[in-house]
Every structure is written in structure tokens, then in C-alpha cells.
Amino acid sequence: MLNTKVYNNTIYLRPGLSTTMIRQSSWSGYPDKTEYYNNIIVNHGSGGYTFLGGTNTKFDYNLFYGNHPTSEPADPHKLTSDPLLANPGTALDRHTVDGYLLKAGSPALNSGVLMASNGGKDYWGNSVSASDAPNRGAYNGAGITYSVPFLSDNFNDGDAGGWNVALGPAANWTIVNDGTPRYQGSAPSDDSIVTSGQARSNISLQTRVKSSAMSSDGSVSIVARYTDINNFYRFGYSQASGKWSIWKKKAGAWTLLNSSSPFSYSLNTEYTVRAVLNGNALSLQVDSGSGFITVCSTTDASLTSGLVGLHTYKSINSYDDVIVSPI
Ligand SMILES: [Ca+2]
Ligand SMILES: [Ca+2]
């Protein structure tokens, strides 16, 4: 391969990984004159660079941040300051990459080198000028001043990438469409949980939920601080009690922590619910149509960190617009 240009990528390696950052190898001969421009390479792991027999490789105007292995290449216009990625490490799939936007004040803004025939658009559809210096990295818009959630999924890409079935048959979970794609848990007679994200402590977990069937002892819930199927908090509505409740499952044992007053929950009606976990303060909020009201709250200190999840027990529920935000 001759004269390849690799430019305006954002590469992120999370802590604990040793994945090679860039590797050249022989594909019926080693590459010659490969040039890397305007890339952001964040290395919080221990991955290095391997060029083997590649020749005339050039790096310029790249930003290298985090760990700097001895194999990291020289670069005449290298930056090593924090690129201020919005919330890196939060992508579920290629449609949930806003964590790689640049925050206002990023040193990567407008500090790249102009590339000929750059295609005119970045990954998000922002324009890329044919005459002005671009950003470094894959994002070419202005620095953002809002915060990007830890996790945000509307399932509108038709898949549930980033979600893992933790309990029950995988076939219980499918994307359905009622005008917008939603993620449905169908467990009319059993128990199912899917989880996503990274272990976190203090969060707001919000989703829209709609039940199409629920047995007399069924429930619909969202889950937080999940470490395994025996340890998590559950926030949801139980048909048996007719109330919203917060439960704890600790070392496999269920504890009902608190419940709301009786609630008239309707099938085929969408509710927007939110669990807020702040230290040992736990609350469950439901959107009344004119703002969220806290229907149930409690304190418990026994589970401190974990994933988020969706829980369906003896019911059929679809979830949409899952948003996990820092608080
Ligand atoms: Ca998806
Ligand atoms: Ca949707």
C-alpha cells in the first residue's frame, strides 16, 4: 500500500486495555508513505505502536493524550494536552458516540492541518472547510457547552448494541416498533434483566416505559448499581401491590425498601420514570405530565456502584429513550 492518509480519527483506549493503538503489517508487502494527520489518540491503557517493515511513515498535527508508551511516534506539531472529549468511553455502538464531541476550550478545536479533498463533512454531518484549519479528531463542530449523558439510547437504529442479557432467555428481548423503535422485554411467565453501561455510583436513570401485559404478580422496573443477578437496586411498579416501589437485592435476598401510595397504572400507556441515586439516597420519580414527582424514596447504603438495567417480571414491557446522566 502506497500513499495512504489516515486523518481526523478519534481513538480512545480505556484503562486496563493493552490493545495496539496503531499497527502496520505486511499485506503482500509493507505500507510505504503512510501519513497520519489530525487524529486524537487517547491512551488510558498500555497499548503501543508497531510499524514493523512500514516505510516513510509520517505523523503530524496529531494529539496524543494519556499514557505515552515509548513506541509513541514523534510528531512535529504534536499536542499532549487533554482534548476535552465530552464523555469518552460511553458509546454503545456507532450511533451513540456523542461522548467523542469536543468540549468548549478543547485544544483540538481548529488546531489541525487543512487536508485536501477532505469530503466536506465530519462523522456527525458538520461541515469541514476546504480553506480553514479543521479540528483534530473526528468531530469538526464547535466546542460544546452542555453535558453529554453517560448513556443514551433511543433504539432508533433498530438494534440493542451495548445491552447484555443478564437474566432470562436472550429471546425475551427484541426491538419492536410502535411508531418509534423500542426495546421490549417479553417475559409473561418468567424473569428477565438486561444491563448496560459502566459501573457508576451517583446517577439519574430515566426511561419511557409501556406495558402491554402484566400478570397479577408481575412488575416493570429499572435497575441500578447492578453488579450481578444477586446484587442490585430495582425501581418499578408492582401489580401485586398496585404501588411503585424500591427494592434491594443483596446477596440474593430481596428487601422491599419503600413503596408509594396506591397508583393507577394502565396498560398500553407510556410512563416516563426516573431513578435517582445519590450516595445512600434513592428515589423513584414519575413524570406526571407536568413535571416529575417523587413517588417513593428511601436511604440504603449497601450497594454503592454498578451498571444500569431494565427488568421485566411476568409482564411485557417496552422501554425507550434510556438516559443515564451524572448528578
Ligand atoms: Ca443501537
Ligand atoms: Ca425509539
Description:
This protein is an all-beta fold and about 325 residues long. It has 2 domains: about 1-150, no CATH class; about 150-325, Jelly Rolls (Sandwich). The protein contains no helices and 20 strands. Strands 9, 10, 11, 12, 13, 14, 15, 16, 17, 18, 19 and 20 form a 12-stranded antiparallel β-sheet that branches. A hairpin with a 4-residue loop joins β18 and β19. The protein is elongated, with a radius of gyration of 24 Å. The model has no long low-confidence stretch (mean pLDDT about 95). Bound molecules: calcium ion (2 copies). The site of one calcium ion has 7 residues, from loops. One calcium ion binds near residues 159 and 161.
List the helices and strands and how they pair.
Layout: E1 5-7, E2 10-13, E3 22-23, E4 35-37, E5 40-43, E6 49-50, E7 58-60, E8 63-66, E9 151-153, E10 164-167, E11 173-177, E12 181-200, E13 203-228, E14 231-238, E15 243-250, E16 253-259, E17 270-278, E18 281-287, E19 292-299, E20 306-326
Parallel strand pairs: 1-4, 2-5, 3-6, 4-7, 5-8
Antiparallel strand pairs: 9-20, 10-12, 11-12, 12-20, 13-14, 13-17, 13-20, 14-15, 15-16, 17-18, 18-19
The protein binds calcium ion (CA) (2 copies).
